[in-house]
Amino acid sequence: MARSPPLHYDQTLFRDPEVFNPTFVPEHLHHRDAQVKELAFLIHPTLQGGRAINAIFRGPPGTGKTTTVLRVFAELKEATRKVIPAYVNCRQNATQTAVYRAIFEEVCGYAPSIGRHLDEIRDGIAARLRDTDARLLVCFDDANYLVAADTYNILLYQLLRLHERWDGVRDAGVFAVTNDLRQNLCAEADGPVWSVFHPYEVNFWPYTRTEVHAILSDRVQQGLYPGVMPTGILDLVSRLTADARDIRVGIDLIRTAVARTEADGRRRVTREDVMCVASGVNSPVLAARTAALSPGERSFLYHLAERSLAGDDMMAGAVYEEMQDYVAAGKTTCHNRLQRLADAGIIDLISTGKGHEVLLRYPPGEIFAACAGDLVPPK
């Protein structure tokens, strides 16, 4: 088979590099039809003159929550002027001022001037809603950051009672999105908020291996020229992505592997390209997942990695017995921590008929680095 000619310095393997950006929203959402239908159900009352049904969207990282909301919001903007959807990234905007500035920009189409008082920003939002006779629908993405900033309840209370403060403003709806499965956003709502919130819950489960392959195949077709990502290499990326349980890992793997291939002047991605960049892609994901753990959970994870590296028995029962040297807690606490690590996508609990075997999803060395600040026995 003839070798492909080398890539010239002014040529690229990317048909459309935007396809691999974190903010890219595809025209078609693969394997999220059920969630799209539920969002349509929640929004439908606004098209009939009513208020959207408030909701909480829950699911692990990389399960399509943000992309689904952005896709539906984009279609809503095209379909009607009766509703103004406002997306707020709470990881970046968690204070009252930052949140209302983000909402103002979505509602008014431009950013409020620097230094503008919070009350003026809220007045501007209300005036625009009154003038357009439109309802506001806010999505708080990563709403758990509002809880951490102690602004969750006050923002929900103010927005859900917007129509009570400003005459002529219709009642708003709120969607709250979280990937912190430990945190119950319903329980975080205090009495005054709960009396008007009453959220519906939508769950986003991890994609299956088949679904991961379909999503990544679609991105490859949109974003790369034919032949750049051979079928076998895409299969490898799909397996790594399914193991990580985060579709963003696969998208970033493709982007960085292709960039490496391009920089080397070659036209096809190889297995070596993928494996070379895999640890660099996985490490930030692991860092984010361990950051969401408590110090005790990170120390517990560190000791699991030590056991794995030493080749010790990784059955859950053996782990519990050995952990008694480190953990002053009972079997229930040990079980809960193992389940927490599994929910976070850091370990797998494999049923063997003799109990559950603990399998690490990341190399012990990467886990040691991610847990470096918690090298004390867990409490």
Protein described:
The chain has 17 helices and seven strands. It has about 375 residues and is α/β, with parallel strands linked by helices. The strands form two sheets. Strands 2-3-4-1-5 form a five-stranded parallel beta sheet, with helices on both faces. The protein has a two-stranded antiparallel ribbon with strand order 6-7. The radius of gyration is 24 Å and the shape is globular.
Give the secondary structure arrangement, pairings included:
Layout lengths: L32 H15 L7 E4 L6 H15 L3 E7 L6 H13 L9 H15 L2 E7 L2 H5 L3 H9 L1 H4 L7 E6 L6 H4 L2 H7 L2 E4 L5 H15 L7 H14 L2 H17 L7 H21 L3 H16 L5 H8 L7 H13 L3 E5 L4 E5 L3 H7 L9
Parallel strand pairs: 1-4, 1-5, 2-3, 3-4
Antiparallel strand pairs: 6-7
Helix pairs in contact: 3-4, 6-9, 10-11, 10-12, 11-12, 11-13, 12-13, 14-17
